[in-house]
Amino acid sequence: MAATVGSGKYTYEPIEDWAKVPDNWNAPMAAVTVDSQDRVYGFNRGEHGIIVFGKDGNYLSDWGVTEFAFPHAIYADPSDNIWIVDRNNQQIYKYTSDGTLLMTIGEKGYRSNTGADNTDFGSNGYKEVTQGAEPFNMPAGIAVAPSGEIFISDGYANCRVHKFSAEGKLIKSWGEPGDGPGQFMLPHGAWIDSKGRLLIADRENDRVQVFSQDGDFIMQWPTKLIGPAVVWEDGDGICYVAEHNGGLFSVLTVDGELLAQWGSDDFRSCHGAAGDSDGNIYFVQPTSGEGSTGRRIVKYVRQ
Hints:
By secondary structure, the protein is an all-beta fold. Helices cover 0% and strands 45% of the residues.
């Protein structure tokens, strides 16, 4: 048995070789989501797009093999539609659970004018941003509200959150470069919490900001996080954060009070989080400090 991590009610046994990727597949994971049937979707930067696993880690299927330029985020909504953020294509896609495309948001290849170098697809464009701009310039994360409205954190070379209708029409945008309320330095992950608020993982500002769905600033979580990449919330209102820059995994209340934490520099570049109906958590983390080229899905079994 592997050593447990976490503490108290939030203690887990990690299964590092859980995801049984078929032999000879190159599948460095970027993100993970779990649907209502506890199928686990790994969005990877190899040749196989979306790889679907059962709770036991066995391979079920794969799809989206040729569509994506730079896989970044994935989200399964309550109807098991699968939402995708392709950072370098500047597009958001909505699919059925078996890979039928339903909707596309964004013009392929178009990058808005934020002051960043639009010939560069590196991950540090956020340092060059001088102004917020329209969608998109290397978007990072997605949240979908119960109403169907869509929220995109547009962060790698922008500093904004964009709100779209359920049909994909832009409603409004907000955000400017900086570290004040409603300002961002790489808005990365997004989540609609159980109170109906929008949580944004403001990665390079080491914080989570909380907004109304109309973009009004509500609060900043009191716990400082080291480069939070994503926030995922379970049915009990408990949030799980992968801290990209710190190599940490944190468990917090929906208002940002820390409950448990584990990790090390070896996990720096951790990038995804989701959970199943049994209370188990799936984190996307690097292997032995390999960074983004060696990420895999590790299952953390609730004890």
